[in-house]
Structures are given as structure tokens and as C-alpha cells.
Write a structure and sequence with these properties.
The structure holds two protein chains of two kinds. In chain A, helix 1 crosses helix 9 and helix 8 runs antiparallel to helix 9. Chain A is mostly helical. Chain A has ten helices and no strands. Chain A has one domain: Orthogonal Bundle (MetI-like fold). The model of chain B has no long low-confidence stretch (mean pLDDT 88). By secondary structure, chain B is an all-alpha fold. The two termini of chain B are 40 Å apart. Chain B has nine helices and no strands. In chain B, helix 6 runs antiparallel to helix 7, helix 7 runs antiparallel to helix 9 and helix 8 packs antiparallel against helix 9. Classes of the chains: A mainly alpha, B mainly alpha. Chains A and B meet through helix 3, helix 4, helix 7, helix 8 and helix 9 of A and helix 3, helix 4, helix 7, helix 8 and helix 9 of B.
């Protein structure tokens, strides 16, 4: 690497700040909207397995659609700008959160729920004090997955005019300017890694002790 | 439907790009399996190595694909090689993770029994643990391959082949027909890999008499 690259990185530092903020804005709005819709919906679906199975299967298919393909399809329909990009990404952020909320709540040991009911808890109490805490690690894993996907997607969203760190990377790729590529790629990577670490910590903090012990026993036996 | 007319007039090109797309995705994923599965077999019982390998591949997985691809392009230049190396790196995590998780999920009592009837450590590993872990390992391969199909679409930005070329040129001239002609086969390719490998894994689980979803 020559001095020129570093000079180019240094020259793009002021815009990196605004691009990072824009990137964060896109990610936070999309994931937040995704959570607001997907967590309650996942809980409702977990009560109606027959209705849920086809919906979960469809979300599985939607999730396999390549990100560039979906963003490209949004372009002729919703047009260019921040709002179409956020709409597309919120929709995509829904999917892992919905699947994990459903799987997490459904995966709670049936006998534990029965015990809670037998102790006299109302269905709402069972949900809030038993099922959700036990499902929390799985739900958070879904939100984590969504967040990391969306950080990655937001780079591509620059193509449909949403701004963010993709602006720097695409400009660098188009002009073969490696300084600009690094100036966009490195903060984007750090953003995603940082988000992953925060969620790892949150997941560990919110995992009930009983589940932790269960896993430790299994690992010790291996 | 403008995309149908585009598709019928460019059918051979769409088929060639779809085939190229599938080959690039499979290449990156298979190369990763060759590295990740033996690594998982070796690392799953060494907690330190296991943690290190998981953290490293997880960090790679987390980096936005276009960012990592652009950085690799600075070293390897434009073309298919850069794309395959990127796909390889992204496929490592699901493969390694599922190899380790699959082996850890094997009932410890079964392992005790295998050792008890006189199997050596490597016999236990290859004749008991690996077959029991195979459906979960296959799920890792499936996730890796489907992800690869998605990432391969953005290979167009570093000059690689595949269906991204149709999608991107359609985006540039705002031709919805061309976008769909690229996006639809890419989506169908991902779904096809997902369905086929899912069916294979389900069959494996049924044979073992296991019903737990992975």
C-alpha cells in the first residue's frame, strides 16, 4: 500500500462521519420497525401452529431471495431514496426475527409451561414470566441476525440512493480508488462487528441460568 | 409482462449466466466445506480452539459482503477469483458452526456405549458421531450454499460473472424486465438449493429415526 491510499482515506474522513451516521440511521429504523412487527406476530403465530406453518415456510423462501435482487425489484416499484430502501430492509429484517420468535416460543419445554399454569399463573403471566425469558436467547439471536444482515444490506442500498457507507465503496470501485474503498469498507465492517458483539453480550446477559447450565453440561460431556 | 419478453429474447444468455452463477456458488461453498468440516472435527472437543475458530469465522461472516469483497479485490484484482474467495470466507462460519454443534448434540450416552463396546476414539468419531451429526452438518452446507447464491449476485461489482450482471445493467437503465430476468433465476436458484438440500437432510433424519428439527 502506498502513501496515496492513506492520503485518500484521510481526505474522505469528514464524509465518513456523515456516512456512518446515515448508515446507522438506516439500520436502526429498519430493525426497530422489524422488531415492532415481528415479535408480537411471532408470539401470536406460536399460539396458532396450523396457521403459522405456511407463513413460516413463506418467510423462509423470502429470506433466500438475494439481497441485490430484492433491492433491484424495489427500484421500479417504490423509486429511489431513503424511504424505499428502509421499507425494503424493514421487510427483510422482519423475517429472521419472526422465525426466531416463533421457534423460540414454540421451543419452550412444554412441561415447564404446564407447571406454570398448574401453579396458578394466568396465560399472560406464563407468557411474560416463563415463555419469553426462556425464548429470549433465540429471539435475540434473530434480532442479531437481522441487524447484521441490514448493516450489510445498507451498503447496497446506496445503489438506490439511500446514502450511507455504500456511497464511498461504490465510488471507490467505480474509480478504482482503493482509498475510498477502504474508507467505506472498514467502518462498515467495524459497525457490523460492533453490533454482533453488543448482541452477543445481550444474549449472554438475558439467557436464564438454567439454560446456561444445561449447555455447559453438554459441552463438558463432549 | 416486459420481463417475459426480455426472457424469451435473451433466453440463452440468462441460462448461461444462471449456470455460471450456480457453479461459482458451489465452488466457493465446496472449498469452504473441505476446510471447515475437518477443522470442526478436530476443534469440537478443544474448547479454546473451538472458541477461537468460531470467533474468527463469525467476525468474517459479520463483515458486509460488498465491503469484504471490495477489500479482497484490492489484493486479488477484479474477476471470478475474488468472488470465489469471498464466498469461501462466508461459507466457513455455517459449516464450522454446524459441524461443531452437530457433534456436541450427539447424546453422550451413545458415545459411552460406543466406547464401552470397544470402539477406538476415531471409530467412535467416524462411525457413530459423524453419522449422527450429518443432518445438522448438511444443514450448515445448505445455509452456506443459499447464502453464496445471494452474495454471488453482487460479484458484478468486482467484475465477476453470474446473474448480478443482468440485475445491475437493468438497474442502470431502469429496465424492470432485465432486472426481473436476473433476479428471478437468482431467487429460484437459491430456493432450489434450499429445497433439495433440505429434503436430503430430512431424509437422513428420518432414517435415523430422529424427528428433532435442526
Amino acid at each position: 500500500m502506498n502513501g496515496g491510499v492513506w492520503a485518500q482515506i484521510a481526505a474522505s474522513v469528514p464524509t465518513v462521519g456523515t456516512d456512518v451516521l446515515r448508515h446507522l440511521e438506516i439500520v436502526l429504523i429498519s430493525v426497530w420497525v422489524g422488531c415492532l412487527i415481528a415479535v408480537p406476530l411471532g408470539i401470536v403465530l406460536s399460539r396458532r401452529p396450523r396457521l403459522a406453518e405456511p407463513i413460516i415456510t413463506i418467510t423462509g423462501f423470502l429470506q433466500t431471495v438475494p439481497s441485490l435482487a430484492l433491492l433491484a425489484l424495489v427500484l421500479p416499484v417504490l423509486g429511489i431514496g431513503l424511504k424505499p430502501a428502509v421499507a425494503a430492509m424493514a421487510l427483510y429484517a422482519l423475517l429472521p426475527i419472526l422465525r426466531n420468535t416463533y421457534a423460540g416460543v414454540r421451543g419452550v419445554d412444554w412441561s415447564v409451561v404446564t407447571c406454570a399454569r398448574a401453579m396458578g399463573m394466568s396465560p399472560m403471566q406464563v407468557l411474560i414470566r416463563v415463555e419469553l425469558p426462556l425464548a429470549a436467547p433465540v429471539i435475540i439471536a434473530g434480532i442479531r441476525l437481522s441487524t447484521i444482515y441490514i448493516v450489510s444490506w445498507a451498503v447496497l442500498a446506496s445503489l438506490i440512493g439511500a446514502g450511507g457507507l455504500g456511497d464511498l465503496i461504490f465510488e471507490g470501485l467505480d474509480s478504482y480508488n482503493f482509498g475510498l474503498v477502504f474508507a467505506g469498507a472498514i467502518p462498515a465492517a467495524l459497525l457490523a462487528i460492533g453490533a454482533g458483539l453488543i448482541f452477543n453480550w445481550a444474549q449472554a446477559a438475558l439467557t436464564p441460568r438454567a439454560l446456561r447450565l444445561q449447555r455447559e453440561r453438554r459441552e463438558a460431556a463432549a | 409482462m416486459s420481463w417475459l419478453s426480455y426472457l424469451s429474447s435473451h433466453l440463452s444468455q440468462v441460462i448461461a449466466l444462471t449456470w455460471q452463477h450456480a457453479l461459482l456458488s458451489v465452488e466457493g461453498t465446496v472449498l469452504a466445506a473441505i476446510v471447515a468440516i475437518p477443522l470442526g472435527l478436530w476443534a469440537y472437543r478443544l474448547p479454546g480452539v473451538r472458541r477461537l475458530a468460531t470467533v474468527v469465522t463469525e467476525v468474517i461472516q459479520t463483515i458486509p459482503s460488498l465491503a469484504l469483497m471490495a477489500i479482497i479485490m484490492v489484493w486479488l484484482g477484479i474477476g471470478d477469483t475474488t468472488l470465489v474467495v469471498t464466498l469461501f470466507l462466508y461459507a466457513l462460519m455455517p459449516l464450522l458452526h454446524n459441524t461443531i454443534e452437530g457433534l456436541l448434540a450427539v447424546n453422550p450416552e451413545v458415545i459411552d456405549v460406543a466406547r464401552g463396546i470397544g470402539m477406538s476414539e476415531s471409530q467412535t468419531l467416524f462411525r457413530v458421531q459423524v453419522p449422527l451429526a450429518a443432518p445438522i452438518m448438511l444443514t450448515g452446507f445448505r445455509v452456506a450454499l443459499v447464502t453464496s447464491v445471494g452474495i454471488a449476485t453482487i460479484g458484478v461489482f468486482i467484475g465477476a460473472g453470474g446473474l448480478g450482471n443482468l440485475i445491475y445493467s437493468g438497474m442502470q437503465i431502469l429496465d424492470a424486465g432485465e432486472i426481473v430476468a436476473g433476479a428471478l433465476p437468482a431467487a429460484l436458484l437459491a430456493i432450489a438449493f434450499d429445497v433439495v438440500l433440505g429434503a436430503v437432510a430430512a431424509r437422513g433424519r428420518r432414517r435415523q429415526g430422529l424427528t428433532t428439527p435442526s
